[in-house]
Amino acid sequence: MILYYFNGYKEKINNFFKLIFIIYLFVLLSKDNILIAPLYDKPLVSIIIPVHNKFIYTYNCIHSIIKINSIVPYEIIIADDMSTDKTKRLKKLSKIL
Fold first, then answer.
1. Higher pLDDT, 23 or 64
2. Mean pLDDT confidence for 19-24
3. 6 lies in which domain range?
4. Same domain, 56 and 83
5. Does 79 lie in the same domain as 63?
6. 40 and 1 share a domain?
7. pLDDT tens sequence across 35-72
8. Residue 9 has what pLDDT?
9. Which residue, 10, 53, 54, 70, is the most exposed by fewest CB within 10 angstroms?
10. pLDDT for 31 beyond 60
């Protein structure tokens, strides 16, 4: 009986989560959230991220790398294949500590 009640609202719940995701994307794309990465003199690791459009995936990838706070010195290299969306503005959204 409870499962039937829940299944009746399955589509409404899915639509709710889709709406939340759309709002998240809108907020992320509507304002410039600056990425701040540390600068190392001699990085031991180079993280190369090839990108073509898909700004949100690229932004989240860089954000998660920065958030880790690794003890290993690293550098992030973005290889952009002539993106036409906001991805081409990643350099403006990035700052180095």
1. 64
2. 73
3. 1-31
4. yes
5. yes
6. no
7. 778 888 999 999 999 999 988 889 889 888 988 877 89
8. 62
9. 10
10. no
User: What is the C-alpha separation between 21 and 25, in angstroms, rounded?
Assistant: 6
Q: Judge contact between 85 and 53, C-beta under 8 A.
A: yes
Number of independent structural domains in the chain: 2
What's the average model confidence in pLDDT over 80-94?
82
CA atoms of 89 and 93, how far apart (whole Å): 7
Residue 56 tokens read as 């949100």
> Cα dist. 54→32, 48, 81, 84, 86 in Å?
16, 16, 11, 10, 8
pLDDT at 10: 62
Cα gap 8→88, rounded to integer Å: 44
Report d(CA 84, CA 61) in Å as an integer.
19
The tokens of 47 are what? Answer: 């993280």
Crossing angle for the helix pair 55-67 and 10-30, nearest 10 degrees?
80
Verify that 39 and 19 share a domain, yes or no: no
Closest-CA residue to 39 (of 90, 73, 69, 89): 73
